[in-house]
Structures are given as C-alpha cells and as structure tokens.
Amino acid sequence: MTREALVKGMRRCKISEILVFVPTYNSEKYLKQCLDSVLQQTFQDWECVISDDASSDNSVEIAREYEKRDSRFKVLTHSHNVGAANNWNRAKENNSSLATKILCADDYLYIDALEKQIRLLKNFKTAIVFSEREILLPSGRLLHPKLPKYGQSLTFNEAFTLYIKSGRNIFGEPVGVLFNTQSLIESKPFSPKFEFALDTYCYAAIAHDQRVTFDANVVGVFRVSKSQWSYQLRREQFFHNFEFIDHLILDEGIKINRFNVMLGKIKVVIANMIRILVYKLMKENK
To answer: What's 225's domain CATH number?
Structure first.
C-alpha cells in the first residue's frame, strides 16, 4: 500500500468532531446550496450524512455527486417513505462524533457556523447550543426575528417553562442548533406523534435533565417554503402544539401553574393565526 493510500484510508477511519446530518425528501431544489454551505465551513473537521426518505426527484443523485466529490459525505437511502421522525432517528446510528447538527435540506449555514457553535458547546458543556438564525421568505427577503435570550445557560425545566409561557418556539429551527452527540444518542427516539413540533420534541428529548446554552450568533438561514410540513399542517399547528405542551407537563415533568399554561396556549393560537396569514400572503405573492 502506498503512503498516499494509507493516509487516505486513515482519513476515512478518523472520527470527525461534528456530524452534519441532512434529512432529505424531494429536496432537489435547494440541496446543492445546503451541501455547499457545509463544504465551505471554516471548521473542516466534519462528516456529512445525507439520509434520503425515498425521494421521487433527483435528491439522491445530487447527494451522490457530493459523495463522489468528497469522502466526508455519505448517502443513506430508505426503500420506502418512513416519515421525518424516523428519518431523523438515523442521526443516532454509528455516530461517534462529539457534536451533531441536523440540517434540513432547504436550509443553509453561514461560513463560520460550525466553528462558533462547537466552541460554545465545549466551553459550556451543555446538551444543546441554540444560536440565532435568519428566515428567508419566498420573495427573497431575509428577516431576523430574534429569539429570547435569558442567559448563556438554562436548566431543562427553565428552558421549557419559558417555551410554554411564550407560546412559540423560543429555540429556533434545527439550522441554528448543535447537539452534544452523547445526549442525542441517549435520548428517546424522535416520535411521529408530534409532526409539527418535531424539532422542539427533539430538543426536549435530548436536553432532558440537562442544561442548554443560548447564543446570540447568527449561524444560518431557515427557508420558508411550501415544501415544509409546517406549511402542510398550517391549520392544525396549534393542536400539535397543545399536545406537545401537555406532553411536557405530563411526561417530561415540567413544573408550571395552570394560568401560565392557559396563557401560553392562547399565545399559540395567536401565533398560528399570524402564521396562516403569512402563508396566505406567500400564496398571493407567488
């Protein structure tokens, strides 16, 4: 074996510090931008696993191009559609990294996202780092609705009590989130029961009985599009959020009084009405 082949083999066996997990389903429109944003990171000690949920478009073919281009990319496929939650569960398989990011295929990272977040995860030694993100509308306009910041580190109960009181996702979408891999692997499987609240259910499962970190850095872009399940479920979203709030109290043991629960659910309904209006404007401006 030549020295060059030996070094190449050693690189393949090396455990990367960050696993970027990209779940795909009919994602051909934005997948290249997503994967390019991983390639261009200032922090280069990563592996990227693309798990396709039986797409009917060219998502797998696009992913295979990156697999051929760079050995850090790996493509997994399903023989039939298993749904978002079951696809996300693959992020736990054969994962020996220090940290894991679930990056939805229509989103993308800013160039120094992994560098900033891995530093924070190491410094604070928490289960999750929640960083800021921008939101890209179909018109091309970028918005930055800031997430509430309550300090660098909160307990699980503090963070999810604030979530219930706020009536909205105070953590942001997966593009802005980095997990401690050990906490991810030890968490309960992601459940199809909470379709719309899949990301926040994921956060709760991983952070249970641990601390989380909130960060002011903007690390990526969440794209609003009609391909998202949140658009498909837009008229049912508050029901899903109600179920998730009840789950947090009954199953996860969040301590909060009834008044704050009721107030939080009212805020959920208001937020859902605003979201439906935004989606309606998206349709009219198409």
So the answer is: 3.90.550.10
Q: Distance between CA atoms of 98 and 66, rounded to whole angstroms?
A: 23
Residue 95 near residue 61, CB atoms below 8 Å? no
Q: What pLDDT, on a 0 to 100 scale, did the predictor assign at position 4?
A: 37
246: CB partners within 8 A, 6+ apart:
none
Distance CA 90, CA 225 (A): 24
Across 105-112, average pLDDT:
97
Number of domains in the chain: 1
Strand 142-143 to 128-136 pairing: antiparallel
Report residue 275's pLDDT band, with 50, 70 and 90 as the boundaries. low
Domain interval for residue 156 = 3-284
pLDDT band for position 281 (cuts 50, 70, 90)? low
Nearest residue to 105 via CA among 53, 162, 180: 53
* Cα gap 11→6, rounded to integer Å: 9
pTM: 0.88
